[in-house]
Amino acid sequence: MPIDPNAPLPLLGGLTPADFMHRYWQRKPLLIRQAIPGLKPPVPAAALKKLAKRDDVESRLIWREEGQWQMERGPFARLPKAREPDWTLLLQSMDLHDDAVCALMQRFRFVPDARLDDVMISIATAGGGVGPHFDSYDVFLLQAAGRRRWRYGMQKDLSLKPDLPLKILSNFQPEQDVVLEPGDMLYLPPQAAHDGIAVDDDCMTISIGFRAPGLAMLARGLLEAAADQTMARLGQPAGPYGDPPLPGVRLGGLYRDPGQPASIHPAELPEALIKATLDTLDTLRFDAALAARFLGCWLSEPNTLSVFTPADDAPDLEEEWPAHGALVLDRRSRMLYRDRQIFINGETAPVAPSPALRALADERRLDCADARCRRLSADSRACLADWLSAGWLHYLPA
Ligand code: SIN
Ligand code: CO
Fold it and tell me: Which among 255, 258, 240, 256 has a CA at the least distance from the CA of 299?
């Protein structure tokens, strides 16, 4: 189902996604009572504690000892007792580990996938929290179990206490003080000062987190893509952004210097060579296709902890297209597109985004009986077959 930006959402307290993005996103906090009425934890606390023992799950434990902040990174062989006060366990990227969490994250896709990062889940006993701090990225804090008291505000002074294992604001001055019940949600823009303290022992908070590329990375990535394309167009080994080559100038020639004057200072770099280098750069095209190539590959790069497991009994899509069932992206797969390019898990697909492939990217599933599948080219089917055998995609029988 395509997203309707103008349909009011209970998730946003009755605001439309368009309104929310216009008035709150990146700008100011929004408290939403009963964003998800009747919400139950997507993963029980006991299962979360088990996950904290695994080395393919990023976890942190935060507690206070004699008033001092302490932090330890997982995996944890043992955790504090459930009745011991003042501790919190945080598990990163839970959307990669659990389908229900991944499904919850999909409800926030009124923000582009390129900006969505991961879902963190924390459990805490009464008094537990990570202290007053700010984050660099937007976040929705959704209360899943127990109650949590949130104090927050948009203070200017973001100085931190020195020499602590975690970021703690030195001068926290909240403007709001609220208690969130299960189903309530708080949106905070980047740099909002906040402190969430568990009121109950079974407190669970789900953070839907976003990412934003650094501007220096954008510049560097675009330059890297231009460099990769320059080599790829000559059929020479190129980096991750080279394959396949985009239309553009083919720099196959050699520097020539008829008219080079006899040198007086032989060690000095010739003026003409400097000029030729700068002129060559002017022939490169820095356009939307190149930016999309870098961003698509880079932002669809899977999490380093993602392991894909192909199913043994997948149908042969090239041999015979299934009449029923659906193709579903694995929850770890990242797929993006732009104009004539489609990106999946860090690679540029060797086919253009047909309506069926766009639907797969936008909806993360494609019904095999969907009329758009009839127009899939042989190359696109071969591509889908590859993704199926890589475990990037799965077939769900009807
Ligand atoms: C938490 O879930 O305990 C912390 C979330 C945050 O403050 O960023
Ligand atoms: Co925070």
Answer: 240
